Amino acid sequence: MERPRRACPGSWSSPPRAMMPPRRQGIPVRTSSLPLFSDAMPAPTQLFFPLVRNCELSRIYGTACYCHHKHLCCSPPYIPQNRLRYTPHPAYATFCRPRENWWQYTQGRRYASTPQKFYLTPPQVNSILKANEYSFKVPEFDGKNVSSILGFDSNQLPANAPIEDRRSAATCLQTRGMLLGVFDGHAGCACSQAVSERLFYYIAVSLLPHETLLEIENAVESGRALLPILQWHKHPNDYFSKEASKLYFNSLRTYWQELIDLNTGESADIDVKEALINAFKRLDNDISLEAQVGDPNSFLNYLVLRVAFSGATACVAHVDGVDLHVANTGDSRAMLGVQEEDGSWSAVTLSNDHNAQNERELERLKLEHPKNEAKSVVKQDRLLGLLMPFRAFGDVKFKWSIDLQKRVIESGPDQLNDNEYTKFIPPNYHTPPYLTAEPEVTYHRLRPQDKFLVLATDGLWETMHRQDVVRIVGEYLTGMHHQQPIAVGGYKVTLGQMHGLLTERRAKMSSVFEDQNAATHLIRHAVGNNEFGAVDHERLSKMLSLPEELARMYRDDITIIVVQFNSHVVGAYQNQEQ
């Protein structure tokens, strides 16, 4: 079942009247700026410093809320609970947005003698959209293998501050293949950050043959330089936590030592599906264990606890020749773009959402707990009435026993002990664990018609239908829509109407050329599309102008990786096996 799409700004209903503050009586007073904007900066803050210095920011935001036309803030949006990862609860006050009295900041009325509209200029819009984009072209031959991947584009657009999404891409150096993944954090970014740094190492180690594992262990024992396992492809903003690197390495080493003890070296073939599952489960186990053991370093001790008490979903692809494996935990998605013989595009889903819309997930959860919990394990489409994804890393509040939670919190730092969220016990919490990080792995053998793969967090899929995603990326990569004649469906069209259609097509072409990154082009459509499926610059400008307190009301963080396949190489693999 497709998840509901996010509504356009201005289309949400107002909060219930009982929740609204009393109307102020008397003559409205003209104000120079709304209170909301005096204590909040927009998400891409660094791009607006020149505007602040030139006193332009208040004009942009002030006129975004000017009521001469129907702008973003004319009627404050009411946020239904199904738009938040966690259901609002007093204990979640420091983790859930918006603030309870957010609407009082949006009720100011403004009057101006001359209606004016100020929007971000196209260069400003492009600066925001392209701030986090990254592209990598894969060499067709790396000295060992011919790659079935031409390259990939990735990008992120934050809604939370700081952004809770993460992304990773790396080439496996000791084995074959490439790893790409997106990670969607909740209750903070600590868990998604840790998983984005560590998971690929666990997968790579799981795929290594016994001899290579022994060679790596001997190098560590003797103090020699280690064989590089991964070649990372990261944007400068995609950082690694240097403070925790030693802790992370020691946990990884313990894992490969156990693999050496378990594997005698007799079996040469490694099951990729089993390796992916083991890596996901082992990393989640290490996250839990590190939080229980703690660390004498106070900074690290607080870090491992933050990682464990926050959570993250993950969607990872491993591509080796024509063998594509997708391991998914949570509600991010992997979508394959297939070009049919007539040039049209179709979407093939390679992952399943692990949430209440998945009947198999509901059944799995109910079977794992006593029958008397059948009505409480999932309430209001959430795990224990609180959590939307049914699988995730971290989130030890849904995995540890109540006694273990209390013991860790009481012995932890004051920041943890004073936090209401960590001390809060979910309702109907009787038979933990209720949550797992075990992934569902899907295998697909690539064909020449499989042109690209889209990995994206749920911020994209809440906004766009999968078929629209594949069509937009397919048209961007091939430029096919430039050459298609304008179809009017048999209707009589005037010369003026035809001129309008041609003008719209020209605008589409120009928007394609201004994006050099497929993920950026997709984000532009996800945020700026109007009801006709075309990018509306006015809408895009307003959405990107929203300050931090408002941005999360309209959309989630969006993280996208678009992987383009080499059809000639895939076809050659196919011909060799025939």
UniProtKB/TrEMBL annotation:
Enzyme Commission (EC) number: 3.1.3.43
Record's compositionally biased regions (Low complexity): 15-24
Predominant subcellular localization, coarse grouping: mitochondrion
UniProt keyword annotation of NADP present: no
Residue ranges of every copy of the PPM-type phosphatase domain listed in the record: 149-565
Membrane-spanning segments: none
Family note: Belongs to the PP2C family.
Annotated PANTHER family: [PYRUVATE DEHYDROGENASE [ACETYL-TRANSFERRING]]-PHOSPHATASE 1, MITOCHONDRIAL (PTHR13832:SF627), PROTEIN PHOSPHATASE 2C (PTHR13832)
Subunit: Heterodimer of a catalytic (PDP1) and a regulatory (PDPR) subunit.
Identification of the protein by name: [Pyruvate dehydrogenase [acetyl-transferring]]-phosphatase 1, mitochondrial
Organism for this UniProt entry: Rattus norvegicus (Rat)
Native organism taxonomy: Eukaryota, Metazoa, Chordata, Craniata, Vertebrata
Gene: Pdp1
